[in-house]
Protein: Signal recognition particle protein
Organism: Amygdalobacter indicium
Amino acid sequence: MAIFGNLADKLQAITRKFGGKTRLTEQDIDGMMREIRLALLDADVSIQVVKDFIAEVKTKAHGQDVAESLSPGQQVVKIVRDNLVQVLGGSDNKLHYSSSTLTVIMLYGLQGSGKTSTAAKLALYLKKHGKNPLLCSVDTHRPAAALQLEVLAKSIAVPCFIQPEEKSAQAVARAALAKAAYLMSDVLIVDTAGRQVVDTELMAELQDIDKIVKPTERLLVVDAMLGQEAVKVWQAFDEAVGVSGFIMTKLDGDARGGAALSIHKLSGKDIKFITVGEKVDALQEFHPERLAERILG
Ligand code: GDP
């Protein structure tokens, strides 16, 4: 994954350097932590997240168990790995389904974050997992966005509900629920309007739609290229609608990856999926351990 290439190279060099040591002095540990700190900051990870990470690893690394173990270098590398998994995510990486007949997944995000293409990717993922999804767009501001969703939906043979002539997003939301009932869909994926910046008028509209469709999941689609800005975007959407998790897009790009490494710790919410390309099958479940493994080798 290009996005973490630099960080992975650096961290792997650090763990190689220290991992083989059969004696580890306090100075060794401090030196290692300094190098890890720089590598994380260089990857655009939030300073707060880096500080907490280093403090935790340091405390554990200075512990009695490590000093007395046969391979203290390996022990410290293991501590780094375990903490990286914790930074990347908690235990809520799975999609929640409603106990009623219809699960509603709302997708939020800034314009260009990859919302519409992610909606289609998620529909294909659900279809492959035996679900019967219905896509819908409540973006009444940009009819082209709804039409784009329709084209994507056709390409994966998933039904799609749009009303490009309708001016009221709330009316489209109500009609989409009726359509889902008619088609006996079990998941309704709602692609919402996005703006280039956070916009109070749009947030009010999203709140209205929320009351109508009562989402099971409110997922914020975040472009990994946003870096630390991602946290501000999360705060704004969370205040308005309450974000239940993230889909991090464009992890195939060459951004530094700081957003993916910071957002869980800063928001307390988990990344549920990542996307790694433009094709409709480029969506993957997010597994913190797997990503930590990729980064640490
Ligand atoms: P929206 O405005 O948020 O609905 O964004 P779109 O779904 O239209 O996506 C904006 C652009 O980002 C499109 O060209 C997508 O193909 C592209 N895109 C979305 N996700 C990814 C991804 O994971 N990787 C890459 N390389 N491009 C992506």
